[in-house]
Fold this sequence. Notes:
- There is one protein chain.
- Helices cover 75% and strands 0% of the residues.
- By secondary structure, the protein is mostly helical.
- The protein has a single domain (45-418), classed as Amino acid/polyamine transporter I, CATH 1.20.1740.10.
- Helix 4 (62-86) packs across helix 17 (402-418), helix 6 packs antiparallel against helix 14 (292-323) and helix 8 (160-188) runs parallel beside helix 11 (238-267).
- The longest helix has 32 residues, at 292-323.
- Residues 7-20 have low confidence and may be disordered.
Amino acid sequence: xxxxxxxxxxxxxxxxxxxxxxxxxxxxxxxxxxxxxxxxxxxxxxxxxxxxxxxxxxxxxxxxxxxxxxxxxxxxxxxxxxxxxxxxxxxxxxxxxxxxxxxxxxxxxxxxxxxxxxxxxxxxxxxxxxxxxxxxxxxxxxxxxxxxxxxxxxxxxxxxxxxxxxxxxxxxxxxxxxxxxxxxxxxxxxxxxxxxxxxxxxxxxxxxxxxxxxxxxxxxxxxxxxxxxxxxxxxxxxxxxxxxxxxxxxxxxxxxxxxxxxxxxxxxxxxxxxxxxxxxxxxxxxxxxxxxxxxxxxxxxxxxxxxxxxxxxxxxxxxxxxxxxxxxxxxxxxxxxxxxxxxxxxxxxxxxxxxxxxxxxxxxxxxxxxxxxxxxxxxxxxxxxxxxxxxxxxxxxxxxxxxxxxxxxxxxxxxxxxx
Length: 419
């Protein structure tokens, strides 16, 4: 037993030494880069289809659903903003939960859950992207999926700045598509847009129930800000920088969503939007100068952007957990030239490809949303434990009031049950 203990300690020391000898990730990201990354993680393909479902539930009161969803998601977001100042790590939520509960295993399980949710989401998006790209590429779906995932994994290995640049360019395209619709509606249907936003409270009990139901749906259009904390080790002054980026991302996303919703209701009826599989393409057909095919192409870019960002996020979680000794050491290796976690990216590539080509993903996509809500709740609970112990806040870090964090925990649990 003594000899076995010596061998285990020696093995653990060897792993630690190997990790220490690895080069560090390159700190190159600043607020503008993070903001582009944050908008890319949040404003994705969802809004291009989700808006019709919100309109079908809440009708001309749907803008309240987006406002309430923005408020609801901002509560756990503030917990993330404080935690990234306390424990900046590529492991993100996993590190936060481990620090809060003072146990590695809850953090490891959290990290694996987040990574699995991201990889499952990427596999779903890859299949969706293949459907869009089949309009232009006469190839089998499996070939399109394999080529797309491989290309995006290669981009993720080449470098974080290059990856964020690619994500930022695609984000500009997808946000540009949304602003194109909003601008055209402002010029052509200003009265319709204004009418879509002029429904002040009070509302009837039935209307309030519909708005709350739509809020559960709209909430998922704001998920994605948490991916920013996984690039903390590649960010200059990560605590205050990422906190600002999280807040700005949610505010700008809410403004864009409200504008798009007003443009949609100012152009088409809630019933028509709800019945359409491509609601924004339907809106584009009602606006002069906005080709529906262009909006469909932009939607495909949004899907591709989501895959790239999820690869970045999941690979950093695997890397961070490996550096902490919770996963095999090879996942903590950094590419000597590109200074990125290449082995972790390769693992993400293999898992996404296997899921996309082998498994039915409808039930897994639903599970993704539930996992994210559970992780938000765990992070809020972990921060409350840290605050209860009175652990000092590092200088310059953002502070989230305890009642706000507690409210975030309650909202996440309620949405998890209600979903």
